[in-house]
Design goal:
With 142 residues, the protein is mainly α. The protein contains six helices and no strands. The longest helix has 25 residues.
Length: 142
């Protein structure tokens, strides 16, 4: 099944909406919810990977590896690790997911003929940088 244009557009928005919740969660030391937040953002990125491969997330699948390339699996699996239950861990995961997102989002915008909401990305990144002292001032993919 190929994902719909609307589904892909929603994934691009949902990623930033998930990350926007992090400052509040980390201020309150809600580590379980911060982990869930990064897991939800990871799910968005995973579905973006699949969409670029031309398929929607297969419902009730038990063979997800067969839908991803080895490099896609390796990239997303790196975001599973957390050195400790701490705000820095969730920030590290989020930054890694932003790097992956930035690789896939432009390709999806082109492949699915979407208009990208750059203001949502800019607003969310500005909020994260302003409210999280450990958030990097810039995230580059170089």
């Amino acid at each position: 099944m190929r994902p719909t244009q609307e589904n892909v557009a929603q994934l691009l928005r949902s990623f930033w909406l998930e990350l926007a919740a992090m400052p509040d969660l980390l201020r309150r030391d809600e580590h379980l919810l911060a982990e869930a937040c990064t897991a939800n953002a990871r799910r968005c990125v995973l579905e973006m990977m699949l969409a670029l491969n031309g398929i929607a997330y297969p419902p009730d699948t038990i063979h997800l590896n067969t839908y991803l390339s080895a490099s896609q699996r390796a990239a997303i699996e790196k975001t599973l690790l957390a050195p400790a239950v701490a705000g820095e861990s969730w920030i590290g995961r989020a930054v890694a997911l932003v790097v992956i997102y930035r690789w896939y989002a432009p390709q999806l915008v082109t492949a699915y003929s979407l208009v990208y909401d750059a203001s949502l990305e800019a607003h969310t990144l500005a909020r994260l940088q302003a409210e999280l002292p450990d958030w990097p001032s810039a995230i580059t993919t170089d």
